[in-house]
């Protein structure tokens, strides 16, 4: 019997999916239930169907697992309802199973290490908070899982964000309610906030469409909120699915000064930055340790961004070259090298063509990559496979794309070590560092 939208059922969860959904089977159909744990029974409601994939939400929890924590599931903390030690077990077992099923290697899977985070709350230095304004009252929240429904959320229930971010959100809301010209915020959709260890803030206002604004008035509004705001910007969405990454400055600095592994970095408002300072530092230390095991004379860092990995390696007296396809990222990394007085690192902009990358690869001993969630593109994987490079360190935030790439890379390299890092406690995400050598 076919399942229908809004249909209500009673189901029992048999396992967790990678994304943390509880998987239930009903009349031979798989249902992914947000917030349901293994062996729990619940009354659920179908909220979305995509071909043969069915998603549901819990209406009433009938049988509760002893592994359930005291916190409620949210789409931005999708494992917070599972006790943290059980989260670690789940992530480790998921990765081991994924690795075993897909990668042909002599690597002993039980040798995988998992580095946990001391801080499992208030660790995120970046927040993306949805905004809804009703009757001139500003509300914060998030989008419901598998829907466009806005879920209201109190600031004190935002358990993952740094205290400085939550303090800003309180100040923003307070000042909004006493601000006279609320019309300039009527199309405000989201606040994106980043912070450093000194509680300084970069704030981006994301609007659904063009708006009638006065930059001077916006600047006055922000300056009245919090003295720690070092830069404020706005972005306008171009469609419901995407927005052009063109940041318009309201006031302040383009860069936020942050510290990783005792080095200082100016991070541009549009640049990538690891969201967990504690675990990021442990990853950089681990990569440095792997590099110290061999006498590498020349190291290549692809996807070098602002230079966080490259400069940490160069700081240990290795000659490092960072490669980017974005000119602004190269300029940012070069400025960070000067900021830290590091002279044995250089950064170049090059095309992503296999020929140009192959020439650079063949001139280095070690390759380090830290790509975005979609991993390495197929052409780059093939280029690495045909290159003369002898060793590689792959830093990944997506186990699925990592495993996809390892299936090819292990034809050239042997896996020497695999370490997981709890970069994102209380979510299903984690970071992985793999050391490969031929």
UniProtKB/TrEMBL annotation:
<feature type="binding site">
    <location>
        <position position="370"/>
    </location>
    <ligand>
        <name>S-adenosyl-L-methionine</name>
    </ligand>
</feature>
<keyword id="KW-0489">Methyltransferase</keyword>
<keyword id="KW-0949">S-adenosyl-L-methionine</keyword>
<feature type="binding site">
    <location>
        <position position="303"/>
    </location>
    <ligand>
        <name>S-adenosyl-L-methionine</name>
    </ligand>
</feature>
<feature type="binding site">
    <location>
        <position position="324"/>
    </location>
    <ligand>
        <name>S-adenosyl-L-methionine</name>
    </ligand>
</feature>
<dbReference type="InterPro" id="IPR029063">
    <property type="entry name" value="SAM-dependent_MTases_sf"/>
</dbReference>
<dbReference type="GO" id="GO:0070475">
    <property type="term" value="P:rRNA base methylation"/>
</dbReference>
<dbReference type="InterPro" id="IPR012340">
    <property type="entry name" value="NA-bd_OB-fold"/>
</dbReference>
<dbReference type="InterPro" id="IPR010280">
    <property type="entry name" value="U5_MeTrfase_fam"/>
</dbReference>
<feature type="active site">
    <location>
        <position position="397"/>
    </location>
</feature>
<keyword id="KW-0808">Transferase</keyword>
<feature type="binding site">
    <location>
        <position position="274"/>
    </location>
    <ligand>
        <name>S-adenosyl-L-methionine</name>
    </ligand>
</feature>
<protein>
    <submittedName>
        <fullName>23S rRNA (Uracil(1939)-C(5))-methyltransferase RlmD</fullName>
    </submittedName>
</protein>
<feature type="active site" description="Nucleophile">
    <location>
        <position position="397"/>
    </location>
</feature>
<dbReference type="GO" id="GO:0070041">
    <property type="term" value="F:rRNA (uridine-C5-)-methyltransferase activity"/>
</dbReference>
<comment type="similarity">
    <text>Belongs to the class I-like SAM-binding methyltransferase superfamily. RNA M5U methyltransferase family.</text>
</comment>
<dbReference type="Pfam" id="PF05958">
    <property type="entry name" value="tRNA_U5-meth_tr"/>
</dbReference>
<dbReference type="InterPro" id="IPR030390">
    <property type="entry name" value="MeTrfase_TrmA_AS"/>
</dbReference>
């Amino acid at each position: 019997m076919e399942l229908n939208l809004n249909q209500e059922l009673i189901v029992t969860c048999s396992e967790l999916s990678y994304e943390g959904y509880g998987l239930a089977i009903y009349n031979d159909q798989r249902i992914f239930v947000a917030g349901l744990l293994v062996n729990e029974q619940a009354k659920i409601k179908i909220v979305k169907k995509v071909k043969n994939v069915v998603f549901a939400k819990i209406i009433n929890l009938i049988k509760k697992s002893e592994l359930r924590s005291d916190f409620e599931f949210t789409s931005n903390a999708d494992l917070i309802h599972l006790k943290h030690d059980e989260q670690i077990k789940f992530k480790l077992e998921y990765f081991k199973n994924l690795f075993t099923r897909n990668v042909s290697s002599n690597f002993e899977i039980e040798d995988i290490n998992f580095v946990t985070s001391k801080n499992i709350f208030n660790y995120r230095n970046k927040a993306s908070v949805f905004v809804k304004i009703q009757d001139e009252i500003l509300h914060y929240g998030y989008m419901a899982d598998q829907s466009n429904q806005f879920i209201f959320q109190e600031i004190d229930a935002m358990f993952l964000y740094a205290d400085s971010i939550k303090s800003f959100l309180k100040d923003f809301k307070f000042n909004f309610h006493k601000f006279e010209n609320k019309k300039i915020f009527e199309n405000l959709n989201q606040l994106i906030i980043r912070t450093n260890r000194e509680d300084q803030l970069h704030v981006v206002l994301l609007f659904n469409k063009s708006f009638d604004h006065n930059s001077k008035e916006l600047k006055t509004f922000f300056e009245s909120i919090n003295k720690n705001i070092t830069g404020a910007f706005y972005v306008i969405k171009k469609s419901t699915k995407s927005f052009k990454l063109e940041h318009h400055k309201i006031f302040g600095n383009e860069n936020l000064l942050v510290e990783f592994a005792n080095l200082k970095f100016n991070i541009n408002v549009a640049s990538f930055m690891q969201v967990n300072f504690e675990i990021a530092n442990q990853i950089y230390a681990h990569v440095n340790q792997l590099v110290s095991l061999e006498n590498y004379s020349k190291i290549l860092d692809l996807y070098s961004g602002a230079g966080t990995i490259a400069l940490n390696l160069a700081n240990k007296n290795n000659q490092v070259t960072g490669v980017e396809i974005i000119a602004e990222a190269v300029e940012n990394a070069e400025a960070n090298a000067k900021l830290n007085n590091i002279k044995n690192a250089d950064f170049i902009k090059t095309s992503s063509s296999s020929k140009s990358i192959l020439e650079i690869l063949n001139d280095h001993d070690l390759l380090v990559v830290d790509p975005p969630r979609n991993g390495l593109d197929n052409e780059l994987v093939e280029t690495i496979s045909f290159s003369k490079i002898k060793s590689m360190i792959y830093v990944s935030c997506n186990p699925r794309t990592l495993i996809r790439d390892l299936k090819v890379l292990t034809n050239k390299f042997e896996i020497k070590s695999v370490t997981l890092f709890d970069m994102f406690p209380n979510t299903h995400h984690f970071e992985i560092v793999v050391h490969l050598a031929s």
